[in-house]
């Protein structure tokens, strides 16, 4: 998860400041202090693998859980329940101190972090007053992720839904059912029903494609049984500025997915540009006004505000993320050298001259590399081996028990799969990658229960 907030927000307040030493449960000073910013694919994996007997570990994140992001599309339509897509950070307490907070500023010279709680202020607090605190570190891991990219299209933040957090999936699920309940009212005209049952997705990458596929499955199974008179009015439209969907996949798999979507009635509108979004409608350059009941926006990543506020570090000109060497150490702009005590991984960082895709797979492998490196260093052993990414391939679900699996860039078992076999690989991969035993039980349990009894379409 993201572990910062906009620096401009903190500048508007004059917070009370408390040093970290005032906490009565401060850890002994005999161990080096490792602070991890973020509880996403990078930060959470570092916390899991780090030697907590030798490091004094602190995690700072605005969320007290880890999102298993590949399952969010399934959660947003009720195929899985939300609990099966999250892992609690506090599984590792008291070995790890965890603060639900934002990091607003990093002082690299003093090795100090300025943090602000992400929890609601106390009732007795004065308006605009936020109590801040400071943390000192010996080693710092910046894994704050990135925000959703809106390309400054007016109205997107106000009227579109994103799909990066379990809270987003919950809001989308509620909105889908709200659209059908509204369309079911006797006062609605057929035109109004068609408009509110128009589900638009902007972004033809894996997230947008998987959500469109999961939504299509929902409409043609459970919604068809519960709202038989409305399902024929529902439409799914997928917009993208690129000439093809799934642009990072093999061309043959792109064509397979496109043909599958067209056969299922999902409209693919590539090379279309959204100019602005208003309540219930968006304006597309090539089509004009497009009404919708739900808009899901999935068009890439924008830099995290904390990363933007760091002026001391070198930034990648394309991604605007922190630039690191091949050992994941942040390169400082003033010296051109890497800071040996500051690391950056995941969507917040790019290795110099070796750009990698902003995927969970990359972040997870960087995290494993980093905790092994830190565990060796704390034992006094040298570790100068560079990070090497091992591409395991890319998966995307495209609906009705079919998927695409691209291994053309993989180091092992090169090739590609499409159809039912790829779907089995997709499900087995996500099942095996879930972290806790609890979720390894919950995920197949929910899959089986929904196959037998269908999804729950209640609004609550």
TrEMBL record:
Keywords: FAD, Flavoprotein, NAD, Oxidoreductase, Transit peptide. Belongs to the NADH dehydrogenase family. Residues 33-366 form the FAD/NAD(P)-binding domain. Residues 392-456 form the External alternative NADH-ubiquinone oxidoreductase-like C-terminal domain. It comes from the Eukaryota. GO terms for molecular function: NADH dehydrogenase (quinone) (non-electrogenic) activity. It is an enzyme of class 1 (oxidoreductase). It catalyses: a ubiquinone + NADH + H(+) = a ubiquinol + NAD(+); a quinone + NADH + H(+) = a quinol + NAD(+). This is NADH:ubiquinone reductase (non-electrogenic).
């Amino acid at each position: 998860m993201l572990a910062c907030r906009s620096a401009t927000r903190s500048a508007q307040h004059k917070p009370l400041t408390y040093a970290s030493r005032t906490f009565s449960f401060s850890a002994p000073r005999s161990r080096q202090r490792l602070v991890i910013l973020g509880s996403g694919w990078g930060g959470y994996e570092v916390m899991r693998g780090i030697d907590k007997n030798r490091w004094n570990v602190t995690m700072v994140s605005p969320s007290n859980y880890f999102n298993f992001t590949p399952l969010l599309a399934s959660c947003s339509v009720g195929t899985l329940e939300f609990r099966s897509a999250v892992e609690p950070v506090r599984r590792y307490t008291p070995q790890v101190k965890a603060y639900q907070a934002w990091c607003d500023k990093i002082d690299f010279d003093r090795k100090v972090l300025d943090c602000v709680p992400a929890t609601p202020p106390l009732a007795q607090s004065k308006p605009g007053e936020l109590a801040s605190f400071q943390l000192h570190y010996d080693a710092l891991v910046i894994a704050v992720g990135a925000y959703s990219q809106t390309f400054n299209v007016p109205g997107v933040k106000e009227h579109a839904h994103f799909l990066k957090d379990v809270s987003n999936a919950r809001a989308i699920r509620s909105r889908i059912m709200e659209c059908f309940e509204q369309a079911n009212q006797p006062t609605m005209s057929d035109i109004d029903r068609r408009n509110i049952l128009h589900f638009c997705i902007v972004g033809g990458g894996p997230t947008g494609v998987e959500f469109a596929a999961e939504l299509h499955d929902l409409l043609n199974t459970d919604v068809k049984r519960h709202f038989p008179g409305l399902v024929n009015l529902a439409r799914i439209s997928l917009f993208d500025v690129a000439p093809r969907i799934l642009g990072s996949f093999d061309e043959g798999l792109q064509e397979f997915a496109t043909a599958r979507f067209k056969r299922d009635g999902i409209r693919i509108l590539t090379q279309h540009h959204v100019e602005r979004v208003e309540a219930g409608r968006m304006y597309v350059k090539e089509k004009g006004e497009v009404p919708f009941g739900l808009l899901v926006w999935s068009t890439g990543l924008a830099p995290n505000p904390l990363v933007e506020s760091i002026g001391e570090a070198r930034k990648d000109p394309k991604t605007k993320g922190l630039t690191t060497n091949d050992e994941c150490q942040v390169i400082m702009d003033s010296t051109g050298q890497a800071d040996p005590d500051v690391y950056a991984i995941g969507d917040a960082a790019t290795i110099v001259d070796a750009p990698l895709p902003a995927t969970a797979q990359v972040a997870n492998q960087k995290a494993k590399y980093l905790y092994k490196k830190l565990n060796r260093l704390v034992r006094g052993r040298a570790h100068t081996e560079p990070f090497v990414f091992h591409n395991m391939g890319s998966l995307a679900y495209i609906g009705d028990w079919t998927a695409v699996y691209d291994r053309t860039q993989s180091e092992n078992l090169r090739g590609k799969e499409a159809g039912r076999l790829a779907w089995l690989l997709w499900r087995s991969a996500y099942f095996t990658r879930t972290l806790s035993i609890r979720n390894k039980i919950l995920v197949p349990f929910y899959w089986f229960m929904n196959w037998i009894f269908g999804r729950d379409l209640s609004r609550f």
